[in-house]
Amino acid sequence: MRRHVVTQSVGRFNVTGLRPAVESLRTALAHVQREQPAVYAALGTAGMLCCRLVRGSATAVSNHSWGTAIDFTLNGVLDRRGDGQVQVGLTLIASIMNQYGWYWGAAFRTEDAMHFEASRSLIAQWATQLR
């Protein structure tokens, strides 16, 4: 896996993640820049690649472990997980991210609005590129 992990710019910031995920994220964020320039200008990240279990689990591996998920900040502020509220800017980019196959964590059992992760269909597509 290590040979498929890259650190690259996706526009406003650099990320470290699985190469096709970084490329997909760069494309999605270019669309965000065109459609929601104010949100794009405020966008930052709290990280993409972080090898760990899903919060609260003893067995489920987080998508961050593979570099296929990202947590966004707006003006340096991270949306508080589990409070049932979301930052407005994240609502403005969620549909754009969905168009590129990224799911929004706001609908998780425990709301996680800062979190976007690559869909299973994207992962399956990328798997063929990583052999």
Automatic annotation (TrEMBL):
It comes from Methylocaldum marinum. Pfam families: Peptidase_M15_4 (PF13539). Signal peptide: none annotated. One of its GO terms (molecular function) is peptidase activity. Transmembrane segments: none annotated. Residues 56-117 form the Peptidase M15C domain. This is Putative peptidoglycan-binding domain-containing protein. The lineage of its organism: Bacteria, Pseudomonadati, Pseudomonadota, Gammaproteobacteria, Methylococcales.
